[in-house]
Amino acid sequence: MRPSWGGGAAIASFAKSDARPALYLLLQTFFSMCYNPTGIIKRVNEWGEAMKKNEPPSAWASLALAFELGFVIAIPIALGAIGGGYLDSHVTHTKDVFLLLGLLLGLILGIYGAYRLLAPFLKR
């Protein structure tokens, strides 16, 4: 029994028509937009050059960044405490006013230094 819609003839006529290249182009464009097997999206900068993909940092680079972050935060706090303690004991003879101000200033400077250190990584 033959279908009344003439399915075989319609498919055969479509296969011979000029719509095939347009359909292939449409499917190829759709496929490349939806599926990217490499995972690399090429971006072009203002000079027309393809930008390189940033590699993830190595374990040693991450460890160095962690130590550098610790020093950037700890050194201003320690110097603020030492300077404030010196001012309290030898110069002004106050209780702990300059010690607390030195700690606060060191903390502010440490946070600012950490922000400046991590700013390139936060922009990614």
Task: Tell me what you see in this structure.
This protein has 124 residues and is mainly alpha-helical. 69% of the residues lie in helices and 0% in strands. The two termini are 64 Å apart.
Which characteristics define this entry?
about 120 residues; mainly alpha
| Category by helix and strand content | mainly alpha
Multimerization status: single chain
Please tell me what the overall shape is.
rod-shaped
- Taken as a percent bin, the fraction of beta residues is under 5%
How many β strands by DSSP? 0
Unreliable spans: none
Number of helical stretches of at least 4 residues: 4
Mean pLDDT: 76
Compressed to H and E, one letter per element, the order equals: HHHH
For the largest beta-sheet, the strand count, sense and barrel status come to: none
Rounded to the nearest angstrom, the distance between the terminal CA atoms is 64 Å
Rg over alpha carbons: 33 Å
Helix content: 55-70%
Reconstruct the topology from this structure:
Blueprint: H1 7-16, H2 19-34, H3 59-92, H4 97-122
Helix pairs in contact: 3-4
Q: Could you give a short description of this structure?
A:
The protein is mainly alpha-helical. It has helices spanning 7-16, 19-34, 59-92, 97-122.
